[in-house]
Amino acid sequence: AQSVAQPEDQVNVAEGNPLTVKCTYSVSGNPYLFWYVQYPNRGLQFLLKYITGDNLVKGSYGFEAEFNKSQTSFHLKKPSALVSDSALYFCAVSVINTDKLIFGTGTRLQVFP
Amino acid sequence: DAGVIQSPRHEVTEMGQEVTLRCKPISGHNSLFWYRQTMMRGLELLIYFNNNVPIDDSGMPEDRFSAKMPNASFSTLKIQPSEPRDSAVYFCASSFQPGGEQFFGPGTRLTVL
Predict the structure, then answer these.
(1) Which of these, A51, A48, A47, A46, lies nearest to A32 by C-alpha position?
(2) pLDDT value at residue B98
(3) Rounded distance between C-alpha atoms, residue B39 and residue A74, angstroms
(4) Dihedrals φ, ψ of A5, to 5°?
(5) pLDDT digits over B58-108, tens only?
(6) In chain A, which residues touch B (CB < 8 A)?
(7) How far is the C-alpha of A82 from the C-alpha of A86, rounded, in Å?
(8) CB contact under 8 A, B95 and A44
(9) Which residues pair with A24 in a beta bridge?
(10) Which residues in chain A are closer than 8 Å to B105, comparing Cβ atoms?
């Protein structure tokens, strides 16, 4: 069965420092992987996705994610964090042969000035 | 494009009352999803439709919950009778293609007293 894990409930980083939000997955077949961000009192916003091709995927707001098949990981990264990046981040994997996405439990990113 | 539209944004009701949540997906999208988000359980998929047909309702908690999609531009999620444990934020999302990114509405915050 497909699943996705976000091992950290919260990540704290100083503004200007690089950030990483971790995600690992378990799927049968080739995964479609996604990152979403949720700001307070808002719906989830799509950041980026990996379907095939280059392992480094670039998305919105300067975020990128690296697909690593051997480690079954899809970590979200940004070279220089902003205070405005503080939000809840969700990793998701598509369920094969359906339209469904399975979401992780979310990681709260806190960027301190 | 106005994005996914949900109404109402906030709903406060008393236990036992009927609650109807509404969603208008993005025009041209053929899949629609209803999610529930709580602190305790995170983000849960309740039901999803493809081309107005319910495909998977395995996440619907119990018979008190029902969802309809009478046409491509409108869906409802109904709770009857409502209970305090139904208090949550309910999101509607839509997508254009199978396995593609989902676009979320702003959510309806439901409080059942």
Answers:
(1) A51
(2) 72
(3) 24
(4) -125, 135
(5) 999 889 999 999 999 999 999 999 999 999 999 999 999 777 889 999 999
(6) 32, 34, 36, 41-46, 49, 51, 90, 94, 98-101, 103, 105-106
(7) 8
(8) no
(9) A5, A73
(10) 43
* Cross-chain CB nearest to B99 (options A45, A99, A106): A99
Say yes or no to pLDDT of A1 above 80. no
* CB contact (8 A) between residue A100 and residue B93: no
Q: How far is CA B21 from the centre of its chain?
A: 7
CA distance B46 to chain A (A): 11
Q: Which residue has the tokens 């009478």?
A: B70
Residue A53 zone, left/alpha/beta (φ > 0; ψ -120 to 50; rest): left
pLDDT of residue B1: 63
